[in-house]
């Protein structure tokens, strides 16, 4: 238990919970990089298409926001490494969402199987 400034007690997460959370994060990052490398060798047109779509999306957002902020935001995402790292971050987010949804549904199904 940890005592906070306001006098309330709060439990810290257990080591097992932290290990589970961080291993999930590490696995999703590794899986994202494996998918990117596999796409680079097997289907480079997927990466090119994703890059073009993301570029169009950044331009649409930049055009929708009035100057001077629209061009600034577009510059930041396009020129300061935004395209590559934004693609990787979006892939990791999509993987985490998909895997979390899958595990959530698996937990629901396994719980419903245990009920008489």
Notable characteristics:
116 residues; mainly alpha; two-stranded antiparallel ribbon; 4 helices; 80% helix; extended
Give a short summary of the structure.
With 116 residues, this protein is mainly alpha-helical. The chain has 4 helices and 2 strands, in the order E-E-H-H-H-H.
* Biggest pleated sheet: 2 strands, antiparallel
Which oligomerization state do the chains in this entry correspond to?
Answer: single chain
Order of helices and strands: EEHHHH
Distance between the termini: 37 Å
- Measured as a percent range, the helix fraction is over 70%
Shape, per Cα inertia axes: extended
Helix count equals 4
Q: How large is the radius of gyration?
A: 21 Å
Mean pLDDT, nearest integer? 86
The structure class reads: mainly alpha
- Sheet-strand content, in percent, reads under 5%
Unreliable parts: none
Number of domains: 1
Q: How many beta strands in the DSSP annotation? A: 2
> Reading side by side through the largest sheet, how are the strands ordered?
1-2
């Amino acid at each position: 238990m940890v005592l906070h400034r306001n006098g309330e007690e709060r439990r810290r997460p257990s080591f097992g919970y932290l290990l589970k959370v961080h291993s999930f994060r590490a696995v999703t990052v590794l899986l994202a990089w494996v998918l990117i490398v596999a796409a680079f060798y097997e289907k480079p047109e997927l990466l090119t298409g994703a890059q073009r779509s993301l570029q169009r999306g950044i331009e649409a957002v930049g055009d929708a926001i009035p100057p001077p902020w629209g061009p600034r935001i577009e510059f930041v995402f396009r020129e300061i490494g935004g395209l590559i790292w934004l693609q990787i971050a979006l892939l990791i987010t999509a993987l985490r969402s998909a895997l979390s949804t899958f595990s959530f549904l698996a937990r629901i199904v396994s719980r419903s199987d245990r009920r008489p």
